[in-house]
Design brief:
Elements (H helix, E strand, L loop, with lengths): L1 H5 L14 E5 L10 E6 L5 E5 L13 H12 L5 H22 L2 H4 L7 H9 L9
Parallel strand pairs: 1-3
Antiparallel strand pairs: 2-3
């Protein structure tokens, strides 16, 4: 539920410039004990979440070894060129994964005042769709 604290409206379709979390995948070839490698915030308030799963580079990568060697070297020397290009795809993939995860978990999307989408649908189903009737 870390992302809901940062981005409570993340299930809504928002413009990319309004996103408050930027996902990246680690290029490290080492083993990570958890899925989240780091969470940082830049000067503009944008948070960067580095993860160790579902990436195109790093220890979880499906790419050939020579790409991984190049990416690991760039990561070690903090000279990411190819890594930044791949992070464009990581961000989109992980954003979609998070939206899918949220869509089917009512307890995550629930709002106390009943204004979340599922609660409104249930109120309408039992005839309480109009707020004046509730």
């Amino acid at each position: 539920h870390l992302l809901e604290n940062v981005d409570p409206e993340s299930d809504q379709d928002i413009h990319p410039e309004q996103e408050r979390v930027r996902f990246t995948a680690t290029a490290s070839l080492g083993f990570h004990p958890g899925d989240i490698v780091s969470l940082s915030q830049d000067d503009s308030g944008l948070r960067h979440l580095e993860v160790a799963f579902l990436g195109l580079h790093g220890s979880q990568s499906p790419m050939p070894g020579y790409y991984l060697d190049e990416l690991a070297w760039e990561y070690a020397w903090q000279e990411s060129r190819l890594g930044l290009f791949l992070d464009f795809f990581h961000h989109r993939l992980l954003t979609l994964l998070h939206r899918i995860w949220r869509k089917y978990r009512y307890h995550v999307r629930f709002q106390d005042d009943g204004r979340d989408g599922f609660s409104r649908q249930m109120f309408a189903l039992v005839g309480l769709g109009n707020e004046a009737v509730r």
